[in-house]
Amino acid sequence: MKRVTLITLLLLAFAAKAQEVKTLTLKDALTYALENKSDAKKAKLDIENSEYQITEVRSRALPQISANGNTTYNPILQLNALPGDFFGAPGTTILAPLGQKWTSSAGVSLTQTIFDQAVFIGLKAAKTTREFYQVNAQLTEEQVIERVANNYYQVYVKRQNLNVLDSNYVNTEKVRNIIKGQFDNGLAKKIDLDRIVVKLSNINTMRQQALNDVQLQENALKFYMGMPIETKIVIPQTEFEVTPTALAEKPNTSLRTEYKLLETQEKLLTYQKKSIVAEYYPTLSISGSYNYLGQGPELPLFAKPEDGVYWSDFATIGLSLKIPIFTGFSTKSRVQQADIKIRSLKEDMTDTKLSLDLAYENSRTQIDNSIITIKNQKENVQLAEEVLSNTRNNYTQGLAPLTDVLDSENALTEAQNNYTSALLDYRLAEIQLVKSQGALKTLLN
C-alpha cells in the first residue's frame, strides 16, 4: 500500500512539473533560442570544423612520412638471355634466372614540399573559410533572433484577440441575463432574447478558433526557440508597452552581417581563382627513403645467411621539379569560370545593398504609420467603449433597440482588434528597423 502511494505521489509530482508554467520575456525567449535551437548549434559546429579544415590544408606543407613493407614469392623466376662468356662458354647464350624465390623489404620514406603556390594559397583560403563560418554563425544568430521575436509578438496578438473575445463574452452574457429577466417579466421580446443567444454562440465559436490560433502560434514560437512543445508559457503584458524608437541616420550597409558574408565569399572566390592560377607555377619537392631488403630461397623474415638469405640496406634522396608547359587550355578556362563567379557575386552584393536600404526605409515608414495608427485606434477603442456603455443604458431604459447594442459590441470588438493589429505592425517594423541597423542583438539586453 505504501509503495502504491509513493508511486502515485511521484506521478503527481511529475505531472505538476510538466504543467509548470514558464514566464517568458522576449530576452528569455531569445537567450533560450540561441542556446537550444539547432540552427545556432550547427553554426557553432561549423566554426569548430573550420579549425580542422585549416589543419588539413596546413598538413600539405608539412613533411609526409610513411613506412612500408612487403614480402614477395616468385614461384617461377624470369630467365634472362646472357652471353656465355660470363659462364666460361664463349660464343653461346645461356638462359639464367635472376633474383630469388623470396624477397622481403621494409623501409620509411619522406616527402617535403619546398615550393607549391597552391598550398600557400590554400592555407590563406582555409583561414578565410573560418572567417566565413564565424560571420555565418553571426548571421544565423540574427536570423534566429528575428524569427523568435516576430513569433513572440504574434503570440501576444493572438492572446490579445482571445482576451477581447473573453471580455465580449462576459459582457454579452450580462446583457443576455438582463434580457432574459425582462423576457421572464414580459418586458422584452423573445426575438431579442434569441438574438443575444445567437450572439453568445457566435462569440463562443470565435473564441474556440482564437484559442486554436493561440496554440498554433505558441507551438511555432517554441519550435523556433528549440523548446519542447509541451512546455506551458506565459508572456508578460509589460513587454508590449510602445515607446517610439529613435530613427537614426541611414546605417552603413557594409557593416551589415549579410553584406559581410558576401564580402567573405568574395575573398574565398578570389582565393579559388588564385589556386587555379597557381597551376601555372612550378612545384618543387624533396624526397628520401631508407629501406632494408632481404632475398633468398626461403622466407627471409626469420632466415639467416646460413640458409642462403641475405639482407642489405639502401637509401635514396631525390629532388622533384614539375614545370607546367601546356594543359590544353583547361587551366585558362577554369580561371575564366572563377572570374565569372566573382563578377556574379559582385552583382549580388550590389543587389543586397539595395535590398538592405529598402528594408531600412520601409521599416522607418512603417514605424511612423504604426505610431499614428496606434494612437488613433487607442482613442477609437475608448470611444467605442463609451458608445457601448451609453447604448446599453438606453436599451435597458427602452430608448434603443437591441440591434444598436449588438452593433456597438461589434464596433468595440473591431476597434480592439485593430488596436492589437497596429501594435503588432509596430513591433514587427521595429524589429526590421533594428535589423537594418545591424543591432538585433540589442534585443538581448
Tell me what the structure shows:
- This protein starts with a helix and ends in a 9-residue tail after the last helix.
- Helix 2 (26-36) packs across helix 4 (117-184), helix 3 runs antiparallel to helix 4 (117-184) and helix 4 runs antiparallel to helix 5 (190-225).
- The protein contains eight helices and eight strands, in the order αβααββββααβαββαα.
- The longest helix has 68 residues, at 117-184.
- A four-stranded antiparallel β-sheet has the order 2-5-7-8, with no helix packed on it.
- The protein has one domain: Outer membrane efflux proteins (OEP) (Up-down Bundle).
- The mean pLDDT is 87.
- It has 445 residues and is α+β, with helices and mostly antiparallel strands.
- Helix content is 62%, strand content 15%.
- InterPro entries: OMP_efflux, TolC-like.
- It holds the Pfam family OEP.
- GO terms for molecular function: efflux transmembrane transporter activity; porin activity.
Distance between the termini: 53 Å
Overall residue-averaged pLDDT value: 87
Rg, rounded, reads: 41 Å
Question: Given the structure, what is the number of helices?
Answer: 8
Shape: elongated
Strand content: 15-25%
Topology, number of strands: 8
Order of helices and strands: HEHHEEEEHHEHEEHH
Largest sheet: 4 strands, antiparallel
Q: Give the helix level as a range of percent.
A: 55-70%
Oligomer: single chain
Instruction: Trace the largest sheet across and list its strands.
Output: 2-5-7-8
Question: Uncertain segments of ≥5 residues (pLDDT<50)?
Answer: none
Write the CATH fold name: Outer membrane efflux proteins (OEP)
Architecture, according to CATH? Up-down Bundle
Given this structure, which CATH class is correct?
Mainly Alpha
